[in-house]
Design brief:
8% strand; 3 helices; Rossmann fold
């Protein structure tokens, strides 16, 4: 792994991955970080959940996760994103 990653592009307005949250990060970026820093079944903590990219990728990679944000908008965006990704909220939710 190199010190500078130039192979992951920023998300532009017309990118199909965009969900409308202003500080959204590319899923590939969070995937690389989560794979490097954790194993399946580990817990991933995102104390500033924002658009939910970290928790969405953690879910895909079979990690448990905790997402926290003080913004009601961020929580709603994250819930909608995860509901779209799968029917996750039929069970208790870990977003606080």
């Amino acid at each position: 792994m190199r010190d500078v990653w130039t192979d992951i592009n920023a998300l532009f307005r017309n990118n199909k991955e965009r969900i409308g949250y202003p500080t959204q990060k590319p899923e590939k970026l969070l995937e690389r970080i989560i794979l490097a820093a954790s194993n399946e079944g580990d817990i991933v903590l995102d104390p500033f959940v924002g658009g939910g990219t970290t928790v969405a990728v953690a879910e895909k990679l079979k990690r448990h996760w905790i997402g926290i944000d003080q913004s009601v908008q961020a929580i709603k965006v994250t819930e909608m994103r995860l509901q779209k990704q799968q029917d996750l909220f039929s069970q208790p939710c870990a977003i606080a």
